[in-house]
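Protocol step 4 of 6: record predicted structures for both targets in the notebook before any analysis. Target 1:
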Amino acid sequence: YIKEEELYCEAPLFVMCSFSHRSYDLVWHSWISGTFSLALYQPSSKSNYFLILGSIAIILSMVLWFLISCCVGMLSFWLENIFFVLTVKEIVIQFLSGILLPLSFFSNNFRLFLDVLPFKYLVYEPLQMFSNDTYKLIDYLRIICIQLIWCIIFYIISRFILRKGVEHFSNVGG
């Protein structure tokens, strides 16, 4: 039996969720985003403020990727084998975030559908911040605000899933 005060421990979220995803997800995502973003960056066309805002967007995309992985990984409280779920998550994220195919190749209706999902803000938008000269300061701030909102939403969802998962959890022999 788990006491109520043990459920609300003060440990950071990454400590509580370290079991929930492959550890290289965050490193792999940061390497992909950082490498492509810096390769596409044209220093003469943008000021240092845009470089800083783009870097913030990359960091927020890594945090968002982690929180999505954490939420999906915590399904292991209820499932015996989560390998298939993690594989489907990776495929969906790679397809809908613009890793496999740029989102500009899709139809306008599908892009409108993607605008309400968080996946666009994992890779596509941070890369566009560095490669698209038509983005203004308001576009940078809009993207960062949307990323922050999605991070807050997935943090709340992950805390809820963790609370329900710990209530359901039973440790046998350990």
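Target 2:
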Amino acid sequence: LGPIYRFNHYDIGSNKVESADIRRGWRELGKNHYDQAINSFKLALRKNPESAEAYNGLASFWEYKKDYDKAIKYLSKAIEIEHRVKYKAGYFYLRALMWMEKSDFDRAIEDYTNAIQNDPTLFYAYVNRAHCDRKIGKLQAALADYDKALELAPKHTIAYEKAFGGRKDLLVEI
């Protein structure tokens, strides 16, 4: 399963019945039981058409199937619905990953920027935005984002390695 599944950090909210469906959907997705997962997320949406978490689950399924356009569609709906700032940041981050998969680095940068505006501590957004900036030749912007990621997560091993490695490689390019 891809980054949407791994990144999933929702706090299942107010509706206990809907929450059970969403939990079941993620559980089934993790077991590669795709039909059951899709049915659980769709059931959650029938109960609450404003469930950003259920749209996120559907996006994860389509990401796994490598249908990034459908994943983007469902993440866009989650972004439209979501009012909790940190969660909205996460959905922007995930949609940016889908744009990266499609090599649409300008849109990815836009979504990483929106993620950062909603949650300035989301250090992975800085790392990935830096990667996108490098792809389109904005080397100084990339360097600034690598530096910010290192500042935010000096003890987070994976983020540090990605940011430090990216920064080191970038300095060779500059």
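Step 5 preliminary note on target 2. Residues 9-15 have pLDDT under 50 and may be disordered. Residues 105 and 132 are 5 Å apart (CA to CA).
Proceed to step 6 after PI sign-off.
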